[in-house]
Specification:
The chain has about 850 residues and is mainly alpha-helical. It has a five-stranded parallel beta sheet with strand order 2-3-4-1-5. Strands 6-8-7 form a three-stranded antiparallel beta sheet.
């Protein structure tokens, strides 16, 4: 048996008709109507169809079928047994297609079709086609002997099929087939109606157009072909219940106005009325109408009873007011009741922001009709969205407008606005979170001056986002996010999002280990999140990209940043992701990848959506690309207008090193001094300290050189920040050897850097270099420090005996009597 079940307009009969015409087997076809609820009529139709198909094929065994009486005997069981017996004698298979089985109603299960589905011999191939689930029992076949099923998902047009169908109707390549597919969900009759409407508009006088209609003209089709097939009571329920695309039993009861609303939902599901059961949420199953079907039903109801349509939208808006802001706003605006939308947004905009992002929330506030789009509370929400997006000037202007209109608010709404303003305005001096004071667990905490600060978990989360987006101190955001996650134990979705942002905050603050730990936890828990929240995981992938870059694990960094960009290309994080992708590709030197990341950088710049701080990031990233392509003069030309610092710490760190390498020493030194009194996280401090050491070396200030190198390795070792050493490999090689002799408290880390620096390009290696194995060269590099054999073994994760074996081999190959002699010989031969 094969079951073809889909709502009206999915081409079930067309599909089966084409298949029957091409089928090599005898095919019987029976289309049912509403009179086939009578068992005698249904039996007559089935026997007549089988005989009509078997007649032209005089095959052995068809005689019994052709001899059957089409009339149903008084004893129905006897007639059914005769038909089954005749089918048993068939020696070749025959196909029976029964179309529109939904019209037979419950009689289908108790009549001949139910008998054939349960007891027909193998020679009969049965195909049932209808709009809903037939009343016959199919579970035994579905989970036992096998049941072929074709549903709406298989019958819907794909994007490519929409394009081909449009082309067959004379629409050229200018048509946006993707938009049409998205609008209709591939519903074939809706695709056809849209293209027909487009063709009619094009053929009208002066009506050449390629613009698709906002809604396909399907209202009459749905009224006649879909709703016209059901009892008036069910039609009334459908028109009421489609006020919302999503609903559960409780809302169905409220919209219907009677307690049987939940039962009627199940009835719609059985009849294939463009509705599907989805996830269990809020203590009940949720049902989703096909959006286009629901929209057309709303149009039908608005034509028939506009006052009822408005009232139902208000019922839905009040129902969703505290549970689904998006749905509440949509329904309130449909009901011409913007005040309901404003009240819901005012209470729950934080949740909306977490799930949908700042641009979506800002657009909702703008879409409110006048004067509600100029409401002080909505203006303040818009200000927060602008602040999170990094547009300080626009945020300040919206705040000013909001405060100028507070006189229109009642006391309760004014208090809410004051809380919102207090939460997102910068804290006065003395009321910042003190990130330097650890708690009992060694973690940073808020100081006592902030105890009366009106902070909710979601508010802290958003405040932390703003801290990072505005390029403020990373560990300040980390403190806020730690408070947010601690306050949201029962808000799983928000906690996971906060975990991702916390990973990014730690990465920005230089705590790479904590960043990787939090990013891993966030990504492990992110699988169950919705699409909007999945985009929040861009922060976790970006955090991992930053960690891997500064640890010089460039392949992993690029993979993580690519995932971040796929998720966060439209978020405020997009530009920073693009900048780090440029840094990674500059480090690897892969010109193809560099061209790709450079193009992504230009794309963000062309959008023009980002503030002044973005211009500095963009300029220094372009300069890095030019330097990687061998055009150092071009890179310097790009960065000279930036002056000697005063930008974001990352920008100034990259700028200072570019200027130093370009020989502009004075400007580079002024740039380093501009960061002295500003926060420098571990990896930025490491990088800037090495730049300062190389500048000091240029002036011959050896004491300053060693002091800066020692500070750099002190900052780098706990978090394995090695990228800054790798990119200066050639210039630091001799200085690190001198520093090891000068003395360091980080012998292992310095020796590891020297070991990596000895692995230069093959053409620089002498013949004697190759007489040592890779491990021997590594041990030799560590031998330049004052580390003992035991300390070298611990650093290389090998035994002391193994280290001593390598040392003896080195002495033998170099003809040396001991460590000092071996190092002297290796230096003379250019091995180190």
């Amino acid at each position: 048996m094969t079951l073809v079940a889909a709502p009206a307009g999915y081409g079930k009969s067309t599909l089966l008709g084409d298949w029957v015409r091409k089928c090599d087997l005898p095919c019987a076809w029976l289309s049912l109507d509403r009179f086939d609820t009578q068992p005698a009529r249904l039996f007559q139709g089935v026997v007549g169809a089988i005989q009509a198909a078997a007649g032209p094929f005089p095959l052995p065994g068809t005689e019994a079928v052709m001899a059957l009486d089409q009339s149903l005997a008084t004893d129905r069981a006897a007639s059914y047994d005769l038909l089954l017996g005749a089918l048993e004698q068939l020696t070749e298979p025959i196909v029976l297609v029964i179309d529109d089985v939904h019209l037979a109603g419950p009689a289908l299960a108790t009549g001949i079709v139910g008998v054939l589905s349960a007891s027909a011999p193998p020679a009969l191939r049965l195909i049932l086609s209808g709009r809903g689930h037939p009343s016959i029992q199919l579970e035994r076949l579905r989970y036992g002997e096998g049941l072929g099923e074709i549903g709406a998902a298989e019958l819907a047009f794909t994007r490519d099929e929409v394009a081909r169908f449009a082309e067959s109707l004379g629409q050229g390549a200018e048509l946006d087939a993707g938009s049409l597919w998205t609008l209709t969900g591939g519903w074939p009759v809706a695709v056809h109606a849209s293209l027909s409407a487009l063709a009619e508009a094009s053929h009208a006088p002066g009506g050449i157009t390629k613009t698709l209609p906002a809604q396909p003209p399907l209202a009459d089709y749905i009224a006649e072909e879909v709703l016209g097939q059901f009892e008036p009571s069910l039609v009334d329920f459908v028109l009421r219940a489609t006020s919302c695309d999503w609903l559960g039993r409780r809302l169905a009861i409220e919209l219907h106005g009677r307690p049987d609303g939940g039962i009627l939902l199940e009835t719609c599901l059985r009849h294939g009325l463009f509705i599907e059961e989805h996830a269990y949420r809020g203590g009940e199953s949720m049902y989703r109408w096909h959006p286009l079907f629901a929209a057309q039903c709303r149009r039908i109801l608005e034509r028939r009873d506009p006052l009822l349509a408005d009232r139902l939208h208000r019922v839905a808006a009040r129902y969703y007011q505290d549970t689904d802001v998006s749905e509440c706003v949509a329904r309130a605006l449909q009901a011409h009741a913007p005040r309901l939308a404003v009240l819901s947004l005012g209470e729950h905009w934080l949740e909306f922001l977490l799930r949908n992002g700042a641009p979506a929330l800002e657009q909702v506030c703008r879409d409110l009709p006048h004067p509600w789009n100029d409401d002080p509370e909505m203006l303040m929400i818009g200000s927060v969205c602008r602040a999170i997006d990094g547009d300080v000037a626009a945020a300040s202007e919206l705040t000013r407008r909001a405060l100028a209109r507070t006189s229109v608010l009642d006391d309760a709404r004014r208090r809410k606005l004051d809380r919102c303003r207090a939460l997102f305005e910068p804290l006065p001096t003395g009321r910042r979170f003190d990130v330097r004071t650890p708690d009992a667990d060694g973690r940073a905490k808020a100081d006592a001056a902030t105890e009366d600060y009106p902070a909710t978990s979601s508010g802290l989360f958003l405040l932390a986002q703003a801290e990072f987006r505005l390029h403020r101190v990373g560990d300040q955001a980390a403190v806020l996010l730690q408070s947010s996650t601690g306050a949201s134990k029962n808000l799983g979705e928000m906690e996971v999002c906060a975990e991702a942002e916390l990973a990014l905050a730690f990465a920005a603050g230089g705590d790479l280990a904590a960043a990787e730990d939090h990013a891993t936890r966030a990504l492990e828990r992110a699988d169950g999140l919705g699409g909007g929240s999945q985009e929040q995981m861009a922060a976790a992938w970006l955090a991992r990209g930053i960690v891997f870059y500064w640890r010089d694990e460039l392949k992993g960094a690029r993979a993580h940043l690519a995932k971040a960009q796929r998720l966060g290309s439209t978020s405020p994080l997009g530009p920073l992701i693009a900048v780090y992708r440029v840094l990674v590709d500059c480090a690897t030197g892969d010109q193809a990848h560099l061209a790709e990341s450079g193009a992504a950088l230009e794309t963000f710049h062309d959008q023009g959506r980002y503030g002044g701080s973005w211009d500095a990031f963009y300029t220094v990233a372009r300069a890095k690309v030019a330097e990687a392509e061998g055009d150092l003069d071009g890179a310097l030309t790009l960065v000279r207008p930036m002056g000697a610092g005063g930008h974001a710490p990352l920008v100034d760190t990259l700028l200072a090193e570019l200027l130093r390498r370009g020989g502009e020493v004075g400007t580079a030194e002024r740039c380093t001094k501009a960061l002295i009194d500003r926060h420098r996280n571990r990896f930025l401090d490491t990088s800037m300290s090495l730049t300062e050491a190389l500048l000091a070396h240029r002036h011959g200030d050896d004491a300053r050189v060693h002091e800066r190198i020692e500070h750099a390795v002190h900052r780098a070792e706990p978090q394995s920040v090695v990228r800054s050493f790798t990119e200066r490999r050639e210039e630091l090689a001799e200085l690190l050897i001198q520093h090891a002799v000068w003395g360091t408290t980080h012998e292992s880390f310095v020796a590891a850097r020297m070991a990596r620096h000895t692995q230069g390009p093959p053409h620089l290696r002498t013949r004697s270099y190759w007489t040592l194995t890779d491990r021997e060269r590594e041990v030799l590099a560590y031998m330049r420090s004052v580390m003992t054999a035991a300390e070298i073994a611990e650093a290389l994760f090998i035994s002391v005996n193994t280290v001593k074996t390598h040392e003896r081999s080195i002495y033998r190959k170099l003809g040396a009597a001991g460590r000092r002699d071996a190092l002297k010989t290796a230096a003379e031969r250019g091995i180190v």
